[in-house]
Fold this protein.
Amino acid sequence: MANVTKALIGKFMFQIGELAKRCNVTADTLRFYEKNRLLKPAGRSESGYRLYNQENQKQVSFILKAKDLGLSLDEIRELLEIKLEATEHSCFEVKAITSAKLLVIDEKINELTRIRSALKKINDACCGHDNDDASHCSILTALDANDA
């Protein structure tokens, strides 16, 4: 879109600070999204300022919701590209992205469960007395053990 006249600014379009306020993010966050090809201003003012519209606001909302679900910038970009050309893509493609993320999350949960179990085991074995020195602490002994 070419430079936008002042009449449209304020009524249908707004500058980065206003979009940031509406979306409860910083202007730097919006610049970051633009730099990473997640957001493209609807236009520029005569003086070169980025201008945004309601569609941009919806896009930022989409990005924030996707981030809350743990999706990466690349995954969000891919979903946005599919959304922009939805008739050219299938639900299968979208689901493939979220299914892959679920697998990664399940792997992380399994790893964290294993770590928690091992830490709890050595933590529970420790007497935890504050009047004993740590020279015989079972946690330090377990961490010092040579069993790999």
About this structure: The mean pLDDT is 91. DSSP finds six helices and four strands in the chain.
